[in-house]
Design brief:
The chain is an alpha+beta fold. The protein contains 4 helices and 22 strands.
Length: 423
């Protein structure tokens, strides 16, 4: 029995001695972290929205211009092809506005020419005055040289007693006056040289160039408006309403026609406004239609992105804003109108870029950082992030391929310089 108690005491003593050693061992190893290598490769970011196939729908044609109705080419019930000119609106209002802007441009250009001409005249006067000053300087320099010779002669005569003190001082004064006059002329000439460097018409030209640019931009916008005075069919189909019929004037934003779309190869979807800046008309879209037993996918392209957003409420009860867009099939069979489809959009694709998990990046003082794992230490490192997806961040500067970064920057206890070990 005594041996058993003695063995227990020995075991407890060993545990007591080993605990501090184990603590020191793990303390030396530091905080356990998950680390990953900085990779270089292709980064693709996509999102998927549910769309609805639209076909045979009524599409309203809204006027983007104002003016008198010049001619109507189709009436209600007519079949039209996409791009057909349905009506023509008079362009005289836009022509008059363009003419006024061209007159303004001509006036601004004339004002610039006048300012440049005035600058040229001023500089010519300055050059003429400078030439006169150069002639005067030569005369005054000759006068100064003569006054120096006269002073030297007066000093000699004064020393020999042939002239008085007053006559010698008179010669000295004559030299001082000659030098002063020459310095004054030189100073005036240097001042004119600086004036000659000035761009007198610069400020005027800059202001008027900006005004001309504004007028030219206005003309460009008006020319686009003129192009829209030809009202064209946005799709092929039948005209079910011709609101323009019987009107002598139309206003911008007014409905002119309603066309029943005769095709069913389009789908619409509402996307969050945060995605809209990354999408362009013509971008490819993967369209997937869920059928019994299998999914069928085909290629589509964005054909239209609406220029306004509408508010809605998310499944979580949060207010969100979405923009409607339209995609058109480029291949595959026509779709069943009214059916739901999945539309997969690619909003970012770059090859040969450095990337890290999004969880590795954290913000501090308005800048982005990661923790590199160097040896057994965490090193806070600033990075320049060029793109952020939900899972991956693209690094433009701050890291090199192959470096180790700590995957979870928010790990409790993690800080700059903290001893760590990868697990």
């Amino acid at each position: 029995m005594k041996r058993i108690f003695k063995g227990k005491y020995i075991l407890m003593a060993a545990v007591v001695l080993l605990l501090p050693a184990a603590f020191l061992f793990f303390l030396h190893r530091g905080l356990p972290v998950s680390a990953c290598r900085v990779e270089r490769g292709e980064v693709v970011d996509r999102f998927t929205e549910t769309g609805v196939v639209r076909g045979g729908e009524d599409r309203a044609l809204i006027s983007e211009v104002s003016g008198g109705v010049e001619e109507l080419f189709f009436s209600e019930g007519s079949y039209v092809e996409e791009g057909d000119i349905l009506a023509r609106i008079k362009t005289e209002n836009y022509d008059d506005a363009i003419a006024v802007k061209r007159q303004n441009i001509a006036a601004y250009q004339a004002e610039i020419e006048g300012a440049v001409s005035e600058e040229s005249r001023k500089k010519e006067d300055i050059r003429s005055e400078m030439e006169q000053l150069r002639l005067k300087e030569r005369e005054e320099r000759s006068r100064e040289e003569k006054a120096e010779r006269d002073l030297d002669r007066s000093k000699s005569l004064y020393e020999s007693g042939d002239i008085s003190q007053e006559e010698k001082e008179k010669a000295e004064l004559a030299l001082e006056n000659a030098k002063s006059s020459l310095e004054l002329s030189e100073s005036r000439r240097r001042s004119l040289e600086e004036k000659l460097k000035n761009d007198y018409a610069g400020d005027t030209r800059e202001k008027l160039d900006a005004m001309i640019g504004a007028e030219e931009k206005g003309i460009e916008q008006l020319e686009k408006k003129k192009g829209k005075c030809e009202i064209r069919a946005a799709c092929s189909g039948y005209i079910v309403r011709a609101d323009i019929a019987g009107l002598s004037q139309v206003a911008e934003g007014q409905q002119l026609f309603v066309i029943r779309d005769g095709k069913s190869r389009r789908a619409e979807a509402d996307i969050l406004t945060s995605y809209e800046p990354y999408l362009r008309v013509g971008d490819e879209v993967k369209l997937t239609q869920k059928l019994q037993g299998k999914d069928e996918s085909c290629k589509a392209v964005i054909s239209e992105i609406f220029g306004f957003a509408e508010s809605s409420t998310s499944a979580l009860g949060l207010k969100e804003y979405k923009v409607k867009l339209v995609v058109e099939l480029e291949e595959g069979p026509a779709l069943k109108p009214g059916s739901d489809v999945d539309l997969e959009f690619t909003i970012y694709r770059e090859k040969e870029v450095l990337s890290v998990p999004g969880s590795a990046v954290f913000r501090s003082d308005g800048r982005d950082f990661v923790f590199r794992l160097i040896g057994n230490r965490a090193v806070k490192t600033e990075v320049n992030v060029s793109y952020k997806s939900n899972t991956v961040y693209v690094i433009k500067e701050g890291l090199s391929e192959g470096e180790l970064v700590i995957r979870d920057a928010d790990l409790e206890g993690l800080s700059d310089g903290r001893r760590c070990h990868a697990v």
